[in-house]
Design a protein that fits this description.
The protein is α/β, with parallel strands linked by helices. The chain is built from eight helices and nine strands. An eight-stranded parallel beta barrel has the order 1-2-4-5-6-7-8-9, surrounded by six helices. The model has no long low-confidence stretch (mean pLDDT 93).
């Protein structure tokens, strides 16, 4: 059985106390930190930049996943890699050539993930999954916190898992948005081997206990890969 990985989203953190929040996540033993970058165009809000990624990189040795919810990920990829990203996630729907962007990021020595919005068919990613390190399925509309989990996305995860198994590929399958101790089990059952979690980890005073509960709920149904 493969253990499900938990990536904690800093979007739910108190950025005025970011060093303390990162320390809490380290103590909770999350597997990675997820940083959402927003440009005000691809999504309506602005959030984070290379300077924040660089600051977090100095605070922790945890892997940093940088999720570029921006229109031109190829234009800014190098800045985020130099800032310390271990995985750079780009959207299929952005204004770029995804195949070229994935190659560019990997040539710079960084892992690359491909994200798709809830309304995007997973079949549209098939030609890219042989070189992608991660497929991130958004289970909420990107750019808005506090949305309910879109359960229909689980079918896309099942399709992605079947495609991965059929072609003997090794990309990770992650789900981002509305993941809680109630929805993490169905995510894993559908085929995800990683989930991105924000408030359910960072809102409780005891982040370690919240993480323990999520892991227990995820692993009791067996990992998806």
């Amino acid at each position: 059985m493969r253990t499900v990985r938990l990536s904690a989203s800093l979007l739910a953190a108190d950025l005025g106390r970011i060093e303390d929040e990162v320390k809490r996540l380290e103590e909770a033993q999350v597997d990675s930190i997820h940083l959402d970058v927003m440009d005000g165009h691809f999504v309506p809000y602005f959030a984070l930049g290379p300077d924040v990624v660089q600051a977090v990189r100095k605070m922790t040795r945890l892997p940093l996943e940088v999720h570029l919810m921006i229109q031109q990920p190829d234009r800014y990829a190098q800045s985020f890699i130099e800032a310390g990203a271990d995985l750079l996630i780009v959207h299929l729907e952005s204004y770029h050539d995804p195949k070229r962007t994935i190659a560019l990021i990997q040539e710079m020595g960084c892992r690359c993930g491909l994200a798709i919005n809830p309304m995007t068919l997973v079949e549209n990613t098939y030609s890219l999954l042989k070189t992608t390190d991660q497929l991130l399925c958004m289970s909420v509309n990107p750019g808005f916190m506090g949305q309910p989990f879109i359960i229909e996305v689980l079918e896309k995860v099942r399709v992605a898992r079947a495609f991965r198994d059929k072609h003997h590929l090794h990309f990770d399958i992650s789900i981002d948005g509305g993941v809680t101790d109630e929805t993490v089990g169905p995510c894993v059952t559908a085929g995800a081997n990683q989930v991105v979690v924000g408030r359910p980890i960072l809102s409780p005073k005891d982040a370690s206990e919240a993480t323990r509960l999520l892991r227990a709920r995820a692993n009791e149904v067996g990992a998806g890969g």
